[in-house]
Amino acid sequence: MSASYYGQPVIKPPVWTSEVPLYFFTGGLAGASAGLGLLAGLRGDDELARRAWGASLAGIAVSPPLLISDLGRPERFLNMLRMLKVTSPMSVGSWVLAAASPAVGVAAANAWTGRFARAARFARPAAAALGLPLSTYTAALLANTSVPVWHEARGRLPFVFAAGAGAAAGGIGVAVTPVASASAARRLAVGGAAAELLAIKVMHRGLGELGEPYGEGAAGRYARVARLVTGAGAAVVGLGARRSRAAAVAGGALVAAGALAERFSVFHAGRQSAADPKYTIGPQRRRVT
Q1: How far is CA 34 from CA 48, 100, 126, 219, 234, in A?
Q2: Dihedral angle at the C-alpha atoms of 14, 20, 22, 28, nearest 10 degrees?
Q3: CA 265 to CA 171: how far, in whole Å?
Q4: I want to staple 237 with a disulfide (CB 3.0 to 4.6 A). Which of 66, 146, 241, 242 is the partner?
Q5: Which residues contact 60 (CB under 8 A, 6 or more apart)?
Q6: Using one digit for the tens of pLDDT, what is the confidence trace for 247-270?
């Protein structure tokens, strides 16, 4: 820890609880699964489309309670919908979540029951279009803070979250879909996992000294778990999920678990960097010299 400021933090560490990284994961899963559901339906793969819309519905159903639980009072979430402030990632994200929820609900209901066919024609593309900002706005939210590890990664963190969301959607799709119908989910799981691992490496390298928290403490432990299970899950999906249902379930679950662990790694790295003044002071000094 730096001796500057007597070793005391320059900024306050985030007060968010574990509901927040869980929300990052479920929101990303919901958004990417909506895109997978739309594409599968357009290809005529109704079996995968049903599973993907179900995963999207599950993810988006638990996201508001997780967010409200962290906020402490339900009316605080409703207050964020009183106006739309396009310069605020929190405001935009709240509106995206509020708009995507009914669209995903209608699309999922149609996929599983055949009802609301007319409304679903509009709901499916709307949900998929909202899926990308739903998957990535939380990265913009983190980057918009003064937390060094998050703010300095503002150009790379959205790619990490987008790739992780795709990997999670593909992994869940592989795990819950019959093998014969899961080819698109397998490609998404493997491709998303590879993209996530690459994006994380690029982000860490770009951070330089600021990337140190990702190798320390809770952030380091989650990062190592994320790399291990993501890589192992992608290998199992790529090598065995075409033939074995057990491999599909195990590999898909590992890929999704890796994306979840990576969200916790990002979360804890931010808290750890905020607690050490050298990560705040160092970038400021480099900018003025």
Answers
A1: 11, 10, 9, 29, 21
A2: -110
A3: 19
A4: 241
A5: 26, 27, 30, 97, 100, 101, 104, 105, 134
A6: 999 999 999 999 999 999 999 999
> Rounded distance, CA 126 to CA 271, Å?
35
34-75 tens-digit pLDDT: 999 999 999 999 999 999 999 999 999 998 888 777 666 666
* Three-state SS annotation for 76-144: HHHHCCCCCCCCCHHHHHHHHHHHHHHHHHHHHHHHHHCCCHHHHHHHHHHHHHHHHHHHHHHHHHHHC
The pair of structure tokens assigned to 195 is: 């993209």
Residue 282 CB coordination number (10 Å)? 17
DSSP 241: T
Joined together, the tokens standing for residue 62 give: 């638990």
* CA distances (Å), origin 286, targets 26, 198, 282, 289: 37, 27, 6, 5
From its phi and psi, is residue 6 left (phi > 0), alpha (psi between -120 and 50) or beta?
left
Q: Which of 199, 172, 131, 158 is nearest to 257 (CA)?
A: 172
**What's the predicted TM-score (pTM) here?**
0.89
* Residue 157 and residue 289 in contact, taking contact as beta carbons nearer than 8 Å: no
Residue 243 structure tokens: 């033939």
